[in-house]
Each structure stands twice: as structure tokens, then as C-alpha cells.
Specification:
homodimer, mainly alpha, Arc Repressor Mutant, subunit A, Tetracycline Repressor, domain 2, 11 helices, DNA-binding
DNA sequence: AGAGAAATTGACTGCTTGGTCAACTTCTTT
DNA sequence: AAAGAAGTTGACCAAGCAGTCAATTTCTCT
């Protein structure tokens, strides 16, 4: 029996081994390709080149370009929601918002292609993400909004519109992935390095924390910031 | 002679009257169409429909889809730079930055399609805007950066990285045009109205002004904010 | 009014696109 | 080892694409 079980387990572990590997490989290379040109601007031939496979092989696994694109999007969405985890009522507002901003900036740096695919999708009307936006995201934002309202009610941070605060944080953090070309042009550098990301993170932290009437960690030269209007 | 001049003037005013009108009409309707689907996602047939003209007529005026797209982009770029006009050393930082933010928010509301076309272009590597970014925009940012450094040196505002401050302002203001679909989904409304734009503007003003150690206008319940770390 | 320039447009074309398919190879299981 | 399942692939196709063109109408100026 144990032998048979082991064999069965080995079977299931083996079954679809190649499949799983190829699915992941194709989705990952497609993320990069879609980020460069968007859904409409990316051809199946280009996606095949990016994966180093013949076009027909991609169709074997995903059927259509649209289904491959959806797979790429879905791979990205989890990241999006998980970043919000630090925002819980028990934590101090400055600490929670700081952790959130750091997580978002980290993702902008580590997964710029994911951010670009997401941005391009929303920019063009989010035809493949309506459900995610109006259900999963909306629910999560409502939930986290209540945490912020709780902090405000307790006088732990300034009175700021929580939803617009999220819009601001999303915009400021994602811009480091989405608009990197513009930043590189303005800064006159060929790539955004650690220095630029650190300066960006510091700026975003400063604007958000001071805007919420909270002190920044790197400038605690004494007492708490009294901006509580 | 004066008669001949008048006639000549009338001639030049008349010559190309239809041309000018059609060029403008096509560029304006194309802006909307390109905003919806990006350069690659917008077909000449779609652009023709948007303008209410046959496809061949668009080719008569612009030659190629790419030239029409460039015309749309160039129409947008002037807006971009002109918004920065309020930022001059003579003005008070809070007033100047406030005016800049209001101008940018105003454009996001009045010309959302322009913002989306610009965003889509940069998102996909800015193949048609390299020159603008590395020359005109870079020069302008460097110039305005000096104004902010001047304010900081005089102790008129907190020490904030001026370039990243611009990145933050661009991101927060343009997101109201570019990501409106996401906002509408999260807010559960069908269109962003005056209320949403006012709440957004207030939030952006708050974050930027408090982040720069400047008081907000709507909350001057006494003295200046002492955040000057 | 008339002649030449400017503008309009339906019909067309060569090419690229997403997607199919049948022949083939490689794995997995017994 | 053998057979069936899973994976691979070059050749192919219909549809849609940007762009052309010649015939026609409308405009402008004298």
C-alpha cells in the first residue's frame, strides 16, 4: 500500500511536469513582451520569439492570444492585493503605511513588467479586468479604507480621504515602473538604480507620512510632527 | 497697395481654410480614439469612423497612421510644458506648487484623452517621444528644479529631492485621467465628477504641501506647519 | 462663368495577423 | 518493449490591416 501510494504520488507529481514548466515559462516571457507593446501591439510571433518556441506551441498551451494575456494578468493580480496586507488596525499608521509603500516600491523595482501590463490594461479601459476591479479590488479597498478611518477617528493620523490616499500611493509607487523611460530621460541615466529607487521611496514616504500628519522614520530628530490639521 | 495687401491677407486666410479645419477635426477625434486603444490597437478604419470621414481622406491629409499619431502627440506636448509656468522663484513655494498642481489636475479633467495618449506612449517605451523627453522636458525640469533648490536653500520649504517631487506630482495628478476606470470601479460610480476631482485635488495638495513643509491653504487655522526636517 | 487647384471617395492591393492542422517526436506507464 | 498520451512543429489559411489610386466633386480665384 505505501508503495502504491508513493507511486501514485510520483505519478501526479510527474503528470503535467512538462506542462507546468512550459506554462510558467511562456507566461513569464509573455509578461515582458506584453509590457513592451501592450496587448494589441504584441504579435503571437513576437510572443513565440520571446519564449524561444514556435508559435503553434503557444497555441497548443493557451489556445488564443487573449487567453495567454489573461493568464499573464491573473498571475499579476495576486501581487497587487497581497501588498495591502500590512494595513491592519493593530499596527501604528506610520509603520503600516510605510510598510505598504515599501512593498509597492519593491514590486515596481522587482516586477516592472507586471506593473506595465497592468497599467496598459487599465489605461485602455480594462476590458479584461472589470470583474477584478469592481469586486476583489473594490472589496479590499473598502476594507482597508475602514482601517484608515479607524486611525483617523482615534486621532492617530490626520483627516485624509482614505480612498484618494490609496490612489495617490498607487500612482506614486507604480510610476517608478510604468514611466521609467521618462524618468531615465529626465535624470539622464540609462537605468534606474538603487540610488534612484531609494530617493523615490524616501520622497513618497515623506509626502504620504507628512500628508497624514505622521513623522517620517528617517527624520525623527525629536518629537512627532504636529501637522494634524 | 493696401487693397492688394488686404486681398492677399484674405487669400492666405482663405487658402487652406478647409484644410486647417479638417486637420484639427481629425487630430481631435484621433486623440480620443488613440486614448482608447493606443497606437497599435487603433486601426485606420476606427480613426476614420471617429472622424466621420472615409479612410482615404485621412490618408490624404496625414499620409500615414504614424504621421497622424505624431500630430496628435505634438498637439499634447505643449500643454505638458506650459503647466510648469507658475513655478518661478519670485512666488511663494506653496502658492507656486499649488497653482501647478491645480493646473495639472485641471488638464487631467479637461483633457483626459491627451493624458492617456501620452501615458500609453511612455508606457511602451516612448518610441515617438525620445527627443522630447531627453531635450525639451529634461531642460524644463532642470530649470524648475533649480527654482525648488533655491527655495530650499532659502529655507522656504523642506529639503525634498526636487526631481522626485516632480515625479510624484505628475503621477498623482495624471492618475486621475489615466486610471479613471480603476477609480470609478473602486468608488462605484459611472463617472468622475466635480466631487471626486475636488477630493483628489485636496489630497494631492495636502500630500505635496505638507511633504514640503508648507501649510495648506484650506487648513490655515493659525500658524505655519513646522515640519521642516 | 470657367479653369485649375484642392478635396473627396469607392475600389483595390500586398502583406501581416491570429489561428488551424496533420504529421511527427518524445515522454509515461504498464 | 510496446502502446497510448502528451508535446512539438512547419506549412497553411481566411480575415483584417495600412496604404494606393484614379475618377469625381467641390472650392477658389480671376
Amino acid at each position: 500500500m505505501p508503495g502504491k501510494q508513493a507511486v501514485a504520488a510520483e505519478e501526479t507529481a510527474n503528470a503535467g511536469r512538462i506542462r507546468r514548466g512550459q506554462l510558467l515559462h511562456i507566461v513569464e516571457s509573455a509578461e515582458r513582451a506584453f509590457a513592451e507593446a501592450g496587448f494589441a501591439g504584441t504579435t503571437m510571433t513576437r510572443l513565440a520569439e520571446a519564449a524561444g518556441l514556435p508559435k503553434a506551441n503557444l497555441h497548443y498551451y493557451f489556445g488564443t492570444k487573449e487567453k495567454l494575456y489573461r493568464a499573464v494578468l491573473e498571475n499579476i493580480l495576486t501581487l497587487w492585493l497581497d501588498d495591502m496586507a500590512p494595513i491592519v488596525p493593530e499596527r501604528a499608521p506610520a509603520e503600516a503605511l510605510g510598510a505598504y509603500i515599501r512593498a509597492k516600491m519593491g514590486h515596481s523595482r522587482a516586477r516592472p513588467h507586471a506593473s506595465k501590463v497592468f497599467a496598459s490594461e487599465i489605461l485602455h479601459g480594462a476590458p479584461h479586468l472589470r470583474g477584478f476591479l469592481t469586486h476583489e479590488l473594490r472589496r479590499r479597498v473598502t476594507e482597508k479604507t475602514r482601517v484608515i478611518e479607524h486611525w483617523i477617528a482615534r486621532g492617530r493620523m490626520a483627516k485624509v480621504d482614505p480612498v484618494h490616499l490609496f490612489f495617490a500611493i498607487w500612482a506614486m509607487t507604480q510610476t517608478y515602473a510604468d514611466f521609467d523611460v521618462q524618468m531615465r530621460a529626465v535624470l539622464g541615466c540609462t537605468a534606474l538604480g538603487a540610488a534612484e529607487y531609494e530617493a523615490g521611496e524616501e520622497t513618497v514616504l515623506r509626502l504620504v507620512l507628512h500628508g497624514c500628519g505622521l513623522e517620517t522614520e528617517d527624520t525623527n530628530e525629536g518629537e512627532q510632527c504636529p501637522c494634524r490639521s
